[in-house]
Amino acid sequence: MDVISVIRTKRDRQRLSDDQIDWVIDAYTRGAVADEQMSALAMAILLNGMDRAEIARWTAAMINSGERMDFSSLTRPTADKHSTGGVGDKITLPLAPLVAACGAAVPQLSGRGLGHTGGTLDKLESIPGWRASISNEEMLAVLDDVGAVICAAGDGLAPADKKLYALRDVTGTVEAIPLIASSIMSKKIAEGTGSLVLDVKVGSGAFMKSLEDARELASTMVGLGTDHGVRTVALLTDMSVPLGLTAGNALEVRESVEVLAGGGPSDVVELTLALAREMLAAAGLPDADPAKALADGSAMDVWRRMIRAQGGDPSAPLPVARETHVIPAPASGVLTALDAYAVGVAAWRLGAGRARKEDSVQAGAGIELHATPGDSVVAGQPLLTLHTDTPEKFPYAEEVLAGSFSVAPEGVSFSPRPIILDRIV
Ligand code: URA
Known about the structure:
By secondary structure, the protein is an alpha/beta fold. The protein is built from 16 helices and 13 strands.
């Protein structure tokens, strides 16, 4: 087998054989296929696609590149959730302890932010003392004791994906449905969860800009999960507007804690409860009541134990950025648009995200929204507050936000997009 013939096959719009797929994934993981060769193959896949059988084999090869975890010693059923990434998407933070409070075990292997979407681990690291990296044994112990764990995937899990994802990120090949589906599902299947709920984001702030592409991605992932014995369901959810009223690490932790305390923005609460119900049903606990677990404080109790189990202090004050800058509403009326992508890029420019994997993030940086589409605003009132430790970044954030929102005269008809757009099983 040689890599050039594998690249030529896909370049010439042919199917890759099972042997070609197994070989190229293994050789790339071992370092026998170079990054520039894998980049060419990834671009050929982005341009020419793969059929379902090729995607299934590619996913299996990525799973086989590393270890598989085993949660069979747990007494509770396992349920996991994965979001394809969005702006202000802090849902994992309240969701994992909430589902654990309802009786499932939630092994939540999460990632860091890259580009305009935030990462769950970066958010949690704004809590003083909290550690993302724990051993597989510690993970199992926290799951057994607390019921929920959010941590970084160990190096042994789908190492082919670790290399390939980093490569795709710098070669313009992230947005290929076969590569996204196999990347996400190889990690989730290797992790060993019994059930999985996918939150596939659609809109300007998501990888998938159209409902049609999001449906294709969701049904590919549901098929992969089901074929590997993981009960898998996908919700397609709106990402044209940021979720909640914050985008940025510590700001999003604060908002998540508000949700766990029974408050928080209505869209975050709605999506958290919808995903919790799906996870509990998939885990065989359809009668559990997540709304009650939010209201009676049991989800908050699990959150505090979960943070403490990884060295964090759930009572410590969260970091705050050194400088803030307010963008006022330009006119009185109804806010009719607030573009998720622009808010994500602005938060990133303020220091909430990283440009390269090795960059660090500012815990306090980000954006607070004082209104969301459908709200009335008065000219001059604060619309957005920008937070950063590096105030020289304010003009770059303002530049991307210019034109990202619109205010129409009061009385104009406005129909908000529902949060949950479709469900794929
Ligand atoms: N998240 C992943 O884990 N992989 C992708 O390819 C895209 C989002």
